Amino acid sequence: MAGQTREERAPGARPPSGGRGSGRGEAAGREQSVTGAPAPRRHDDGTESPSGAHVRGEHTHSEPPAPGTVVRRHSVRGQIVDALRAALVSGELRPGEVYSAPALGERFGVSATPVREAMQQLALEGAVETIPNRGFRVVVRTARELAELAEVRALIEMPVMLRLARTVPAARWAELVPLAEATAAAAATGDRAGYAEADRAFHRAVLSLAGNDQLVAVADDLHRRSQWPLLSAPAPRRADLVADAAEHAALLEALMVQDLAVVSSLVREHFNGADR
Question: What is the pTM of this model?
Answer without folding.
Answer: 0.68
